[in-house]
From TrEMBL, chain A:
Cellular component GO terms, alphabetical: plasma membrane
Source taxon at top rank: Bacteria
Compartments (UniProt record): Cell membrane
Protein name as annotated: Carbohydrate ABC transporter membrane protein 2, CUT1 family
Taxonomy of the source species: Bacteria, Bacillati, Bacillota, Bacilli, Bacillales
UniProt entry tagged with the keyword Cell membrane: yes
PROSITE patterns referenced in this protein's UniProt entry, alphabetically: ABC_TM1
Native source species: Paenibacillus typhae
Automatic annotation (TrEMBL), chain B:
Keywords tagged on the record: Cell membrane, Lipoprotein, Membrane, Palmitate, Signal, Sugar transport, Transport
PANTHER family, per database record: ARABINOSE-BINDING PROTEIN-RELATED, POLYGALACTURONAN_RHAMNOGALACTURONAN-BINDING PROTEIN YTCQ
InterPro entries on file: Bact_solute-bd_prot1, SBP
Protein's UniProt name: Multiple sugar transport system substrate-binding protein
Lineage top rank: taxon: Bacteria
A Pfam family matched in the record: SBP_bac_1
Signal peptide (from-to): 1-27
TrEMBL record, chain C:
Transmembrane segments: 21-45, 80-102, 114-134, 165-189, 210-231, 276-294
Record-annotated ABC transmembrane type-1 domain positions: 76-290
Keywords: Cell membrane, Membrane, Transmembrane, Transmembrane helix, Transport
Subcellular location: Cell membrane
One family name in Pfam for this protein: BPD_transp_1
Record membrane topology: Multi-pass membrane protein
Swiss-Prot/TrEMBL GO biological process terms: transmembrane transport
Species lineage: Bacteria, Bacillati, Bacillota, Bacilli, Bacillales
Protein name: Carbohydrate ABC transporter membrane protein 1, CUT1 family
InterPro entries, alphabetized: ABC_transporter_permease, MetI-like, MetI-like_sf
Main localization of the protein described in the UniProt heading: membrane
UniProt signal peptide: none
């Protein structure tokens, strides 16, 4: 079907082709996941101080001591996970909705100043974060006085330019004819968006959700800046508490990293089906 | 059409606001502007006030005791609240610096005394001289106290003082015929040290080194420590001499750089030294891959002992492939025939102000809280966990929560080295200090990394540092010999 | 295909002004508060000697100093080298993998996607620790054991100027391409089967289909990945910061790291702002060129 030829006659050569591809994919996969593999097996080590980094590829033993250590380390270990979830979920919902809306407008609607506005948005992506960090901190903490609140954690990421850009690029491949046809039949733009664009954009929305959730979940620096009590910290900030002056609790840190990665897997697999459905652009053949 | 689009605009704004407030409603802790710098609203005789502090995990159980510390302070001073923000070591500086730059720093922050001039240059430090009582001042040892002074101003209080040493494996030292007890008391010269570490090298049948004589963590910014510690005993105790001339242009510096290269070329130190980090070299020490390691801290004795116990217990919890090690604390050798001056590191607390001018009352309260954190039982406990002697009289008298076994020889060696510690220089102007730090980060550290990787010669590095120093301080501003 | 595009362009659409503004309203408000305002602030700071308790206006001094700073140019060169070595190759790799995954069953596809995506979900700091371990300079290190198989002596990966940049590049090649792969796959699934069917009737080979259908169709996606990839790569500083500290001898000092150091090590906030604006200008120029030369026949 599709891109790949089905006119390969013998099963043998089909098998050979797929075998070859699988081998390539597996080799690269092995190289890519090696650090993760190492992270996970190290997390089963004992909570020993610095220098305990094992130099063997296979785990010498499996123990859950480090996981226990992680949860016993602070009474706020669970708070960190819950905080991360609340923050990432809010950011994801608002990004998926507002970025899709704005991305659609920039891709398919005609209005004055569209080009300039989009250029400004793009331009802003180019300023390194180190410099906008202090003004943003002043705004949130000194002007709005929001430090140590969920609002402060969520607000700056409400809708990101990257996401708008991503949606816009995706929407460029939706044929204008669909929208035109809907307009001729008297559909208003919100209706078009809701009944035509949204269903067609499930894939990009799922991609957006995963990427945003991941970015919010893994964000370290901003939560670190605006939180000042343990119970408001997110998991990434909490994880860093495992590093002491001259020692690092390596195994518990890896256990924490593994724990923090698990929600991402769950999200990833639960959104998987949307990727595979694909965009039903076939709606307008010819 | 127009009307509907306006309503849509409204609708979407409402959605945004409701989203925000929904999430904001979950916040357990609404904004608390305790660090605003002014004493809180008056309410009768004693004014209520909140003091904020940003603190790292100083010792293993320090952060765990924060809640107790806050409560105890409140019991002592019912009108005052101490609010402690925890931060990890590596992110501490960046968080503090962002808050300082935004004009809303915590009242108290933990820094290494070497960073004092950086904050002084921004005019964000508060002089506590007038609000600290003589009684409090007398509680602190003079040497560490000076580390938090610039000119006449007392910008903070020291928390502990620690000597950077090097640490040896007792068994290996004895095998190499080194009289470590004598060295602990009398020190050693570079020539003696060079000979000793080359004797410590062990090779296998195919000529590969299985044990080095000396390994120091020099990866990345740690290389700064390596050079600074050696420079102290090479006749270059500070960047500036008493006439405020930059000292690293002296021939002594070239001599030190030559020695650094020699130890690697001899095969006594690994040629990959430039990317060995703190964790790696400690692992090498515990697994018997090196006789001596640096830098050494008093608490390492405890880490080694704990690992020995795990080896004995034989339950697989010890560091993989490690051997039983008796940690022996040793002084850094002296170079160029110079006197032994230990690298004494003092960390402590500084008092900070934001955009708002703090009231006299508030400054007094900051001093109270700061003294509370750096003396008495709090100081006794973190010092104890770090294997250090408290630097306050009250700390030395206070009870500690846990007793650790100590190696008496190491304790004696520590005291001998501590006795030679010099007080900090308080006469170096902040702009000179800032310029020296810039040379350090932009020239000295990168070139040192290249020197360790055998990419440049000691002479080339010396020339580069000299050129940068002359550019910054002029021909007259540097030492020529 | 091309005919269709031109046809589309000819279609005159009535203006959607009102709704257009409504659709972007929230995005725009959030943008102006949390992005535009700090950026404008950065502009102002770049003309100042910044101090938390009050700044002094110094005109273009920060820019002049930056231009005279050798280190800035060296960092810019390093950044350029890093970008050229990583971004195009990584995009090519992601494209290749996305194409290679296509012929398999849904289940196999999801397994591979998940595997390639894995490194992205772990925190960068934890992974940097693991990579430090891989690049262990002694013989026992993984990377050294690997080159040892080919009879090469152990390398001081991150500690020598000859290999430190390469080590960071290698790390980028082997770290997560999951995001790009997923974006590519989503776009690939968006290509309607009828195009392939038509091509099959014409007897097109696999490569012809790739060249005439897939690559043109994925052009907006590729451009997106290229532009954001270059922007990201120019701002990259975490790995250099965590793994080499910019060394040895500034061999891995990138502009991002330089700006970070200026802002938070020296408190030279004005200079950091000036440098970041110059960096932004460079990125803008490169993005503009990318749009101009690669984005020609993409419809907006």
């Amino acid at each position: 079907m599709g891109l790949y030829n089905n006119n390969i006659k013998s099963n043998g050569s089909l098998f050979a082709r797929n075998g070859l591809i699988i081998t390539c994919l597996l080799l690269f996969a092995a190289a890519t996941i090696f650090p993760i593999y190492f992270m996970i097996i190290s997390s089963f080590g004992d909570p020993v101080e610095a220098g305990a980094m094992s130099y063997s590829i296979l785990p010498s033993k499996i123990s859950f001591e480090s996981y226990k250590f992680f949860f016993n380390f602070s009474s706020h270990s669970w708070d960190w996970l819950i905080n991360s979830f609340i923050v990432a979920a809010c950011i994801t919902v608002s990004n998926v909705f507002f970025a899709t809306l704005a991305g659609y407008a920039f891709a398919k609607m005609r209005f004055k100043g569209k080009g300039i506005l989009f250029a400004i948005l793009l331009g802003s992506m180019m300023i390194p974060t180190q410099v906008t960090q202090v003004p943003l901190y002043i705004l949130i903490v000194n002007v709005f006085e929001l430090q140590n609140t969920y609002t402060a954690l969520i607000m700056p990421s409400l809708v990101t330019v990257y996401n708008i850009f991503l949606v816009k690029q995706f929407m460029s491949s939706i044929p204008v004819e669909i929208i035109e046809a809907a307009k001729i039949e008297g559909c208003s733009q919100p209706k078009i968006f809701w009944h035509i664009i949204m269903p067609l954009s499930k894939t990009v929305m799922a991609v957006l959700a995963i990427l945003t959730f991941m970015a919010a979940w893994n964000d370290f620096f901003w939560p670190f800046l605006v939180t000042n009590t343990m119970d408001m910290q997110t998991i990434q900030v909490g994880l860093k508490n495992f590093r002491f002056a001259n020692t690092t609790y390596f195994a518990p840190m890896m256990a924490g990293a593994t724990i923090s990665a698990v929600p991402m897997f769950i999200l990833f697999f639960s959104l998987q089906k949307y990727f595979l459905e694909g965009v039903a652009v076939g709606a307008v053949k010819g | 059409m127009k009307k509907r689009s306006v309503s849509a605009l409204l609708l979407s704004s409402i959605m945004m606001v409701s989203l925000l407030s929904a999430c904001g409603g979950n916040a357990n802790n609404t904004a608390d502007s305790g660090n605003s710098g002014s004493a809180g609203n008056s309410g009768g005789g004693v004014k209520k006030d909140t003091i904020t502090a940003l603190l790292p995990p100083v010792s293993a159980n320090y952060q765990a005791r924060f809640a107790d510390m806050e409560q105890e302070f409140n019991t002592l001073h019912p009108n005052l609240t101490l609010k402690i923000e925890p931060a990890s070591w590596e992110d501490m500086t960046q968080k503090l610096d962002t808050q300082v730059n935004a004009g809303s720093p915590p009242d108290i922050a933990w820094i290494g005394a070497s960073g004092l001039s950086k904050y002084a240059a921004l005019n964000v430090l508060i002089d506590l001289n007038t609000v600290l009582s003589d009684e409090i001042k007398a509680d602190y040892d003079e040497v560490p106290m000076k580390y938090f002074q610039l000119g006449d101003a007392q910008y903070g209080l020291p928390a502990y003082m620690e000597i950077h040493t090097i640490g040896g494996n007792k068994q290996f030292l004895e095998e190499a015929g080194i009289d470590w007890k004598s060295i602990q008391q009398n020190g050693w010269t570079y020539e003696e040290f060079r000979d000793a570490i080359s004797k410590g090298v062990v090779k296998n049948d195919s000529g590969e080194t299985t044990r080095y004589g000396f390994v120091f963590a020099t990866s990345g910014v740690a290389s700064k420590d390596y050079l600074a510690i050696l420079a102290k005993t090479a006749g270059l105790p500070d960047y500036f001499d008493n006439d405020l001339k930059y000292t690293y242009t002296s021939k002594k510096f070239l001599g030190l750089l030559t020695a650094i290269r020699e130890m690697v070329d001899d095969g006594s130190m690994p040629k990959e030294l430039s990317s060995i980090d703190a964790g790696k070299r400690w692992n090498m020490f515990l697994t018997g891959q090196t006789m001596i390691t640096g830098k050494g801290l008093s608490a390492f004795e405890n880490s080694a002992r704990l690992n020995n116990e795990k080896i004995k217990a034989n339950d697989g919890s010890a560091v993989a492939d490690s051997i039983e090690v008796d940690y022996i604390s040793l002084p850094v050798p002296t170079f160029n025939g110079a006197d032994y001056i230990p690298t004494s590191i003092v960390d402590g607390y500084i008092a900070l102000r934001g955009k708002k001018e703090p009231s006299e009352e508030h400054i007094k309260n900051i001093a109270l809280a700061m003294n509370f954190l750096s003396s008495g039982s709090i100081a006794a406990n973190y010092s104890n966990e770090l294997f250090l002697t408290p630097i306050t009289e009250s700390g030395r008298k206070a009870e500690v929560l846990e007793q650790f076994p100590r190696n008496e020889d190491n304790v004696a060696a520590g005291q001998a080295m501590m006795a030679k510690a010099l007080p900090a220089r308080t006469d170096i102007p902040t702009d000179l200090a800032a310029e020296a730090i810039k040379i350090e980060t932009e020239v000295i550290i990168p070139k040192l990394q290249a020197l360790l990787a055998d990419e440049i010669t000691p002479q080339e590095m010396y020339d580069a540092v000299k050129a940068a120093a002359v550019k910054s301080f002029g021909e007259d501003g540097v030492v020529v010999d | 295909m091309n005919q269709m595009l031109t046809k589309r362009k000819k279609l005159k659409l009535e203006s959607d002004s009102g709704w257009g503004y409504a659709f972007i309203a929230v995005a725009l408000i959030a943008f102006s508060l949390f992005t535009a305002y700090p950026v404008i602030n950065a502009f102002i700071i770049s003309l100042q000697e910044y101090g938390p308790l009050g700044s002094t206006y110094v005109g273009l001094e920060n820019f002049v100093n930056t231009f005279a700073d050798e280190l800035f140019w060296k960092a810019l060169k390093n950044t350029l080298v890093y970008t050229l070595l990583t971004v195009p190759f990584n995009i090519f790799l992601s494209f290749l993998i996305a194409i290679l995954i296509m012929p398999f069953k849904k289940k196999t596809q999801s397994i591979f996607k998940a595997v390639y995506y894995l490194p992205a979900v772990a925190s960068g700091v934890s992974l940097a620790v693991v990579w430090l371990w891989i690049f262990d300079p002694l013989k026992s290190g993984i990377a050294n054991q690997l080159v040892g198989l080919f009879g090469i002596d152990n390398q001081n990966w991150l500690g020598s100027s000859a290999t430190s940049m390469f080590s960071l590049v290698l790390m980028s090649w082997l770290s997560s391409h999951g995001t790009a792969i997923i974006i590519y796959l989503a776009a690939l699934l968006g290509i309607d089967n009828s195009y392939y069917e038509a091509a099959d009737i014409d007897g097109a080979t696999f490569l012809q289909k790739l060249w005439f259908i897939v690559i043109p169709f994925l052009k907006p996606t590729t451009l997106f990945l290229l532009v954001t990839g270059v922007i990201g790569s120019f701002q990259v500083f975490q790995n250099a910061y965590l793994m080499t500290g910019g060394g040895p001898d500034h061999a891995t000092t990138m502009v991002g790291l330089l700006i970070f150091n200026n802002a938070f090590t020296y408190f030279e906030f004005g200079e950091a702002a000036a440098q970041s604006l110059l960096l932004a200008a460079v990125i803008a120029l490169i993005s503009f060129l990318q749009f101009k030369f690669l984005g020609k026949d993409i419809e907006y």
